[in-house]
Write a structure and sequence with these properties.
Blueprint: H1 4-16, H2 19-26, H3 30-44, E1 49-52, E2 55-58, H4 60-85, E3 92-98, H5 100-117, E4 121-127, E5 141-144, E6 153-161, E7 163-168, H6 169-175, E8 188-192, H7 200-208, E9 213-218, H8 221-229, E10 235-238, H9 239-242, E11 248-251, E12 260-267, H10 274-289, H11 291-294
Parallel strand pairs: 3-4, 3-5, 8-9
Antiparallel strand pairs: 1-2, 5-12, 6-12, 7-10, 7-11
Helix pairs in contact: 1-2, 1-3, 1-4, 2-3, 5-10
């Protein structure tokens, strides 16, 4: 009988197309992945992959077993989620995933009181540019700026992020204020890479400043903000990040920067687990409390009482 532990190495290579990428996903070394694949192929007496210069491609035998292995993986993950879901105590570990800048500027500081309130509760906060899979149990909870597409994920919108256009005082002294009627001609942009898909603020900036050159493309908001503060160019940043960076000035623009929604997701099999539910509810509640910081435009203006008529 085949060992599931061997088959998960096969599946990782099939999904990622190389030994190095499979090793990163499994958190083992590349030689380990190679050895496990060789052992599996010897046990089956058949080649599962063609080794090509561009990566590993499945043979007919590999294609034939892939669907079966994927079903085995889903069953194993479902069993793990069910077992975890019967946990009744506020102890153990909850893994939370979000982007690097949200982890450092929003979620990390926000979680401190929760850890003090429940000493037996351990929180693993993972920051990554990659969108983790809750279905694959890469995390228990995820906070991100795009909705979750999987049907087995329960999600809620917890906040709206406001953005603004920023530049360093030193940069503006050297290049002058951007002329939006000329699409910021002569200026440089420090923009986010859209390798993870279309990003609303990136598209808005490129339209607003189509005459500017793109000096830097990045995959990290913190680095984007620091480079803008160093005078690298104009940058569209979350207000809660840009407003806190020393030396940056928020610029008035002819059209407002777009807002983005923050979504908190949890797999359906875990949403009833007390420790996961406690962390999810706490994050949702505290982020909603931070609403005026995340989106200053939503701050309600004080109403003016009508003046009494003159007599």
């Amino acid at each position: 009988m085949l060992d599931w532990d061997d088959l998960r190495f096969f599946l990782a290579i099939a999904q990622h197309g190389s030994l190095s990428s499979a090793a990163r996903s499994l958190r083992v070394t590349q030689p380990t992945v190679g050895r496990r694949l060789d052992a599996l192929e010897r046990k089956l007496g058949s080649r599962l992959f063609q080794r090509t210069p561009s990566g590993f491609t499945l043979t007919a035998t590999g294609e034939g077993i892939r669907a079966h292995v994927e079903r085995m993986e889903q069953d194993a993950l479902a069993a793990e989620r069910r077992a975890t879901g019967r946990d009744i105590g506020l102890s153990g570990t909850v893994r939370v995933s979000t982007t690097e800048w949200l982890a450092s500027h929003v979620l990390g500081p926000l979680l401190v009181p929760l850890a003090e309130r429940h000493p037996a509760l351990g929180i693993e906060l993972h920051s990554d540019v990659r969108r983790v899979s809750l279905t694959q149990r890469e995390a228990d909870l995820a906070l991100r700026a795009v909705p979750f597409e999987q049907q087995d994920i329960f999600q809620r919108k917890v906040a709206r992020l406001a953005f603004g256009l920023y530049a360093a005082e030193d940069y503006l002294a050297r290049h002058g204020a951007p002329d939006f009627s000329r699409q910021c001609e002569g200026h440089a942009l420090v923009t986010m890479s859209d390798e993870q898909g279309p990003i609303a603020d990136v598209a808005w900036l490129r339209t607003l400043a189509s005459g500017a050159r793109i000096a830097f493309r990045l995959n990290n908001r913190d680095v984007q903000a620091r480079m803008a503060a160093a005078g690298a160019g104009l940058a569209c940043l979350p207000r809660c990040l840009g407003d806190d960076v020393k030396g940056l000035r928020r610029l008035a623009t002819p059209t407002p920067a777009p807002t983005r929604e923050l979504w908190l997701g949890v797999h359906g099999d875990l949403r009833g687990t007390p420790r996961v539910k406690e962390v999810a509810d706490f994050i949702a509640r505290e982020i909603r409390r931070l609403g005026p910081t995340l989106n200053p435009e939503d701050v309600p203006q004080p109403s003016r009482r009508p003046r009494p008529p003159r007599t």
